[in-house]
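ARCHIVE CARD
SHELF: 3
SLOT: left
DATA:
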Amino acid sequence: MSDRQHEAIVRRAEQADIEGLVACGSALFAEDAGTRDPGVDINWPREHGPQRFASGLADPNRLLLVADRGDGEVVGHLTGTLLEPSAMRPVKVATLVSMYVRPAYRRDRIGGRMVAEFRSWAKESGAASAQVTAYASNAEAIRFYERNGFASQSVTLEATL
């Protein structure tokens, strides 16, 4: 592995980024859920991603970020959403829904920059807190999120039937 850091621009996604968002989403599903959760359809990003990402571009309650090499090639993405207050939880919450950085671009602080941008957006949008979910067996992701200010709050237990 090279000592050279890869340059990448973290920015809001645009219509031209949909193909790159789908590619990153597909890679995330294959690498993460595909190895940890047999109940997840790893083809979902290819089948439903284009429409889902396109609908999120103009939605003020959704954030779609890309990490772009500077030439338009997407090497990472982050999606987030805002949950409005409810009677049970009377505060607005920002959820980091998905994040992926291509393996060759990891360790270049791209993920940290995307998380910082997500947290800024969440705060500016009036969220009282931010949350993210990671598979319990994905220790590397959990360490990454902890380094970026997240702490465990609850645990989901599942039984196969």
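SLOT: right
DATA:
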Amino acid sequence: MKSLHTIQKLSKLGEILSKTAFIFAVIGCCGCIAGMLSMGFGNGELLRIGAITLHGLIYEKYGYNGRSIAATLSGSLLVCAGEAALAKFAESYFRNEQKAETPFTSAGAKELLRLGILTIAVPTGCAMAGSIAEGILAGFMQVENTVENTG
């Protein structure tokens, strides 16, 4: 019984961590949307210190224009959305495991199998879709190069 109690505590921790991951993924999505709107369509005058603007600082320091950063953020938006969906699936598994009070059920095994497959497929698929979207948007906006994703 002691090991089952430990598993239940770990399941509760997994549920909390998956909720936290979902919240951060949604924040990432919102940040990408805000960045795309400000870099792709803004004029850079919102943040101004003397004669220095945000768009000018990014171009001078890194050599990227706002449109290339907006194209990169479009790919990152898809990755964040995929991670949010994956975190919701994980949260659902942990919640159902808590409700059953044991991880050793047939339904729990099927759900864990689905979660494992999704854990492999979703990040890979979202990375590919994000790269494709980034390339399409970069071509549409006619930018020379986009920011390298190193994360």
